Amino acid sequence: MHAYRTHTCGQLRKEHVGQTVRLSGWVNRRRDHGGLLFIDLRDHYGLTQCVVEPDEAAFAETDKARSEWVLTLTGRVVARPAETVNADLPTGEVELRIEQVAVQGQAQELPLPVFGDMTYPEDTRLKYRFLDLRRERLHRNITLRSKVISSIRRRMIDQGFTEFQTPILTASSPEGARDFLVPSRLHPGKFYALPQAPQQFKQLIMVAGFDRYFQIAPCFRDEDARADRSPGEFYQLDLEMSFVTQDDVFAAVEPVMHGVFEEFADGRIVSPAPFPRIAYDESMLKYGVDKPDLRNPIVIADVTDVFARDDVAFKAFKGKTVRAIPAPGAGAQPRSFFDKLNDWARGEMGAAGLGYVVFEDESGVLAGKGPIAKFLPAEALAAMAARTCVKAGDALFFSADAKTDRAAALAGQARIRLGRELGLIQEGEFKFCWIVDFPMYEWSEEEKKIDFSHNPFSMPQFPREKFLALDNDDRDTILGLKAYQYDIVCNGIELSSGAIRNHDPEVMLKAFEIAGYAREETETKFAGMLNAFRYGAPPHGGTAPGIDRIVMLIAGEENLREVTMFPMNQQAQDLMMNAPNEASARQLNELHIRSVLPETK
Prior knowledge:
Elements: E1 20-33, E2 36-43, E3 46-52, H1 59-63, E4 70-79, E5 94-105, H2 122-127, H3 129-132, H4 136-158, E6 162-163, E7 181-183, E8 191-193, H5 199-207, E9 212-221, E10 232-242, H6 246-263, E11 269-270, E12 277-279, H7 280-286, E13 301-302, H8 304-307, E14 321-327, H9 335-347, E15 355-362, E16 365-369, H10 378-388, E17 395-401, H11 404-421, E18 429-430, E19 432-436, E20 441-444, E21 449-452, H12 464-468, H13 475-479, E22 485-490, E23 493-500, H14 505-514, H15 519-525, H16 527-533, E24 540-543, H17 547-555, H18 585-591
Parallel strand pairs: 3-5, 6-9, 11-18, 12-19
Antiparallel strand pairs: 1-2, 1-4, 2-3, 4-5, 7-8, 9-10, 10-24, 13-14, 14-17, 15-16, 15-17, 19-22, 20-21, 22-23, 23-24
């Protein structure tokens, strides 16, 4: 017999009754029932109920065991009495009668129990992550992650993609976040950067003639944590294709995304391909965000022209962009509901507030009630109702600002909040869409200059010669430029950004020049890529869906830490391994650097 196990703790069934077997695992739970001692033994594969009676030789040794001790139990498999069968447990028809017990590892008093799913402080969970990972939900999530990655890899290979690995130590690149820098011992004063993404390398793979590349790529960004963004590092399905249009990329990605979500949907509905395509400008108008949750039926409308009418006396909205956010059924809500939303807009969102009108039926005519309704004539109310498809019993909220982007942003967040509070979100669905036609550039109010709005390596949707002739004085033309950039979004979560790449050296130099980079600086910063492009570069494009976010959605979690094996906390600290920590004087001397701490007040 094997030293530790003949079967796993999830393997025994009725056909094993009568056999002598050996199991090894952790004590999930210990129960003493009137002399009978029950041990629920758990391993990676499942759980088996084991039992020993007081007059058995193994009782005394088994009785010493406590939660999370590691035991090897040997005994005979017996059928459970009908009244004790556990139909919720795969091994629930049998139990192990303990004849021998060996203690493989004792456990001290636990800082958090493994049995059950109680909520514990994040710092405790992360410091003792090895215990947290034993808990059923988290263990299941991490196993699911492995299965999802395997499914993605299989689907990519089946579509003719080849997996390659790209360097981890590389040069800094303007990907939109801070780099993690690594000092070079052999080249004093110089630094490597950990890749924010394999962007340049995957494009160089295309230049090298490999056609369809992918990898499950680690990426490193020194940015603050959020529920849908891990601090420090994350993984993405990085892919790139040669001789493709935007449509070709979509056609390759959609079967993978639809297929993997459908495989693990567990009864939930997945958007069929092709996924809807929504232009960036349309998304910002209708949803107020560039990552809309299409499970939410609310569609925002522009009513600027209605409030600009001469017969509308509400002066607070005159000369401003006004967006209307329908709230189906909100007319039945108490006044406190509307006041609470107004307070949220003023406080959390820093806005002037949210105006609103409640629609009622007065003798077959749609009438408005609320603080601003008296300023709106019947014709204006009818125009807004027709544009937003509201009816009696519904409400309209209004977001207004002198700046269109701020009016859109408040409307977008109000739409999200209303969808949740009114119970409008269609649960049990995965709704995908592509956001396309992103602006190539945006105006940086902070730096008072034109900057890239998305991916700097994207091909502009503009004739080549006209683009090369652009002058920075052509600000309106430049800010109106669209790029072949696209995001894939699911349930309001951005899964990836992608683009058809700028493979023309002159167009690339001009693109960076418009964003304030001198040609010499661009030549230096992207020497490898520009040099490669000058030796024959194919048209190419790709994208990179985030693995962590995909698994988070499939697992039904709201935080990436619940699907990441060893995450850091919100302050980018690994509490289990005590990282980051101080380097020794010898290490710093070898790297020719010194640590200068910020002054404390």
